[in-house]
């Protein structure tokens, strides 16, 4: 088996189950629905009911960071109805979108072109290893506050601290000290090596202590952030590497656990699912490369090619259902009903229809002029809040039973 070797090991890769043990599930349950916790999380559809249901533990405040859950989570109508009930909604976003229109405070972060960028996550799943730093293209105004500083102050206040006592350098040094321990460095000898803090210091630590790093001078040919910055087109570190299975697998046994009891115990439910009506239509989601998330619909160059918000139907199914290409169909699930233009294509298998993620930009109170011209419909209105993959705790957005008729 082949695996990449990302130059900067993502922080989420640092914990090792050989040391910490296998993750436990169901340590607690959500207040209203009783959904079991999985890896510290419950399904996103729980959020609406946790806001709207009075009682001890009711969610009264929310910090929303560059997200649009009022449009992009399943059963989104319930969440849209719940957001105005919050005592405090703080949003960090460039846009006043379907979610941030409810915010009591909207803190505008910079655009992607006004911030430098270093990707640590995607290289972990790539067929090759590389590293690249991208400088910001446009200068920001004098009153500009980086997102990481906004988040640091919000974190300080959410911990119950007084704003007058806020010490940014101490907070930044504290997190960097924690990272030093995570990456096997002595913070007392590492902190004095820097005359600056913030994300660049953290990235430098990740690069230097990564598989290609200079380990703070131990390997003079190794990487550090300055070397990556100096390589304008990035640093190519070669293809995936074989014989690394023992490095990558972190289970206590050191093996790939193909049949853990946690999954085997769910097989009876799987067998029942196989007995469902084979003639029923099911809805699956999709994403286009130019419209993966809701914010991309407000960029003119990405939506100029025409309507991408269509219901894709197999030709034989279209004939059976009386649908024609370009005409509208009504799609109904137990959660809701929408009308959408039909696109007939043999790329879709029989019995399955597909709607794209993230459309439905027709809400009052937003400031998305381009997206409103290409509003589309919100497929998440069809996703029932209880439709959840029980093993992972993830909300299911595929395989939703639907009825399809000409509109």
TrEMBL record:
Q: What does the UniProt keyword field contain? A: 4Fe-4S, Iron, Iron-sulfur, Metal-binding, Molybdenum, Oxidoreductase, Signal
SUPFAM superfamilies from the xrefs?
ADC-like, Formate dehydrogenase/DMSO reductase, domains 1-3
Q: Where is the Molybdopterin dinucleotide-binding domain?
A: 281-399
Under the heading Pfam families, the entry gives: Molybdopterin (PF00384), Molydop_binding (PF01568)
The yes or no answer to whether the keyword Signal is present is yes
On whether Cell membrane is a keyword of this UniProt record, the answer is: no
What is the name of this protein? Unannotated protein
Q: Which GO terms describe its molecular function?
A: 4 iron, 4 sulfur cluster binding; metal ion binding; molybdopterin cofactor binding; oxidoreductase activity
Family recorded in the similarity comment:
Belongs to the prokaryotic molybdopterin-containing oxidoreductase family.
Q: Where is the Molybdopterin oxidoreductase domain?
A: 38-114
């Amino acid at each position: 088996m082949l695996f990449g070797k990302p130059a900067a090991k993502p922080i989420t890769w640092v914990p090792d189950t050989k040391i910490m043990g296998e993750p436990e599930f169901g340590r607690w349950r959500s207040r209203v629905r009783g959904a079991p916790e999985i890896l510290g999380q419950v399904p996103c559809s729980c959020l609406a009911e946790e806001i709207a249901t009075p009682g001890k533990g009711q969610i009264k405040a929310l910090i929303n960071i560059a997200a649009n859950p009022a449009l992009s989570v399943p059963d989104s109508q319930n969440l849209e109805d719940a957001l105005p009930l919050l005592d405090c909604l703080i949003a960090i976003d460039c846009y006043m979108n379907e979610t941030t229109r409810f915010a009591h405070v909207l803190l505008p972060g910079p655009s992607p072109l006004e911030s430098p960028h270093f990707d640590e996550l995607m290289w972990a799943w790539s067929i090759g290893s590389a590293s690249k730093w991208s400088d910001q293209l446009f200068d920001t105004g004098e009153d500009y506050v980086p997102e990481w500083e906004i988040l640091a102050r919000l974190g300080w206040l959410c911990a119950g601290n007084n704003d007058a006592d806020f010490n940014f350098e101490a907070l930044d040094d504290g997190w960097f000290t924690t990272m030093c321990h995570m990456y096997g460095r002595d913070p007392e000898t590492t902190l004095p090596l820097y005359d600056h803090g913030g994300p660049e210091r953290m990235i430098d630590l990740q690069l230097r202590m990564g598989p290609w790093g200079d380990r703070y001078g131990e390997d003079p040919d190794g990487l550090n952030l300055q070397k990556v910055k100096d390589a304008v087109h990035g640093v190519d570190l070669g293809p995936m590497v074989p014989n690394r299975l023992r490095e990558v697998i972190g289970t206590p046994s050191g093996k790939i656990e193909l049949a853990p009891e946690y999954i085997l115990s769910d097989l009876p439910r799987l067998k029942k699912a196989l007995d469902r009506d084979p003639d029923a239509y099911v809805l699956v989601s999709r994403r286009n490369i130019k419209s993966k998330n809701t914010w991309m619909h407000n960029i003119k160059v990405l939506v100029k090619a025409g309507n991408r918000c269509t219901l894709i139907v197999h030709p034989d199914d279209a004939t059976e259902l009386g649908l024609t290409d370009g005409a509208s169909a009504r799609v109904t699930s137990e959660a809701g009903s929408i009308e959408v233009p039909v696109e007939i294509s043999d790329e879709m298998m029989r019995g399955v229809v597909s709607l794209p993620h993230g459309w439905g930009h027709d809400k009052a109170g937003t400031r998305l002029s381009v997206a409103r011209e290409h509003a589309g419909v919100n497929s998440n209105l069809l996703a029932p809040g209880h439709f959840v993959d029980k093993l992972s705790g993830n909300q299911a957005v595929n395989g939703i039973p639907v009825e399809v008729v000409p509109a």
